[in-house]
Specification:
Belongs to the short-chain dehydrogenases/reductases (SDR) family. The chain is α/β, with parallel strands linked by helices and about 250 residues long. The protein folds into two domains: about 190 residues, Rossmann fold, CATH 3.40.50; about 30 residues, no CATH class. The chain has eight helices and seven strands; from the N terminus they run βαββαβαβαβαααβα. Strands 3-2-1-4-5-6-7 form a seven-stranded parallel β-sheet, sandwiched between helices. Strand 1, helix 1 and strand 2 form a beta-alpha-beta unit. The radius of gyration is 18 Å and the shape is globular. Bound molecules: nicotinamide-adenine-dinucleotide. The site of nicotinamide-adenine-dinucleotide has 27 residues, from helix 1 and helix 5.
Length: about 250
């Protein structure tokens, strides 16, 4: 490019991606980087985080570690413009399948984790001219998935929290939306498939159950996130984009 700097929609902005060391978070980090943002990956396990990104080890269920990590990001970059609250864990079974400790653990990571991270980043976001937050919910937020009671409760709460945060911070110029993926091809889903007797057959069956006949690609989710945190979506807040091959619309 003859020495000319590439320009992207997120040039000059700093983005935190929680759960950014794996799966959807890793794809989101890469996409926001490609769009010009400087990236801070925040993950409880940064061992396999992409080395080109600054990595901060923190557990979103632990307020002390979250506050230390956000302070470290602020100190290193001098600004925080975008927060992608993507870290999350799964839970299987009906309402009787998980004990109180597991309910508390999943809700603490999937729901309260968003509040902890965002609250710690708020003083920085308030100073940004382009502040945007994207939470990773799920089609479980809006549709009845069998044997996913606790997980669905957590993601329904993410949808409600997204609207509440959007309302509370509207006048401060901070936009808040969510991306709601269907079944996506990530290490998480890989681990579930690996526990099947015939992982290849199970993968084919899982793909066939999707309306578009395949798993969602992490890059497709990352593309929706990139839009929701970019100036292109400047009038969009308190809502979501489903990236699910049409699954939610069929229910
Ligand atoms: P993944 O397991 O591949 O990656 C999750 C990442 O989050 C990991 O790097 C993990 O270390 C990190 N993480 C987990 N708990 C954490 C904690 N307490 N503190 C900090 N980091 C933590 O999973 P994925 O499939 O990429 O899922 C990412 C998000 O997408 C989750 O919120 C999940 O609920 C959501 N989601 C996934 C799918 C799917 O099919 N994969 C579908 C809908 C929604």
């Amino acid at each position: 490019m003859g020495g000319t700097e590439m320009t992207g929609p997120l040039d000059g902005l700093v983005a935190i991606v929680t759960g950014g060391a794996s799966g959807l978070g890793a794809a989101i980090a890469q996409r926001l980087h490609d769009d010009g943002a400087r990236i801070a990956v925040l993950d409880r396990d940064t061992t396999h985080a992409d080395e080109k990104f600054a990595a901060f080890t923190a557990d979103v269920s632990d307020r002390t570690s979250v506050e230390a990590a956000i302070a470290a990001v602020g100190a290193q970059f001098g600004r925080i413009d975008i927060v992608v609250n993507n870290a999350g864990i799964g839970a299987q079974g009906d309402i009787a399948a998980n004990d109180d400790d597991e309910w508390a653990r999943v809700l603490s990571i999937n729901v309260t984790g968003i509040a902890r991270v965002t609250a710690a980043a708020l003083p920085w976001l308030r100073q940004s001219p382009a502040a945007a937050i994207c939470n990773t919910a799920s089609i479980a937020a809006t549709t009845g998935l069998p044997q996913r009671a606790l997980y669905s409760a957590s993601k329904g709460a993410v949808a409600a929290l997204t609207r509440a945060m959007a309302t509370d911070h509207l006048r401060e110029g901070i936009r808040v939306n969510s991306v709601n993926p269907g079944t996506a091809d990530t290490p998480w889903v890989g681990r579930l498939l690996d526990s099947a007797t015939d992982p290849a057959a199970e993968r084919a069956a899982l793909a066939a159950r999707q309306p578009h006949g395949r798993l969602v690609s992490p890059d497709e989710v990352a593309g929706a996130v990139a839009y929701l945190v970019s100036p292109a979506s400047g009038s969009t807040t308190g809502t979501f984009i489903e990236v699910d091959g049409g699954m939610a619309s069929l229910r």
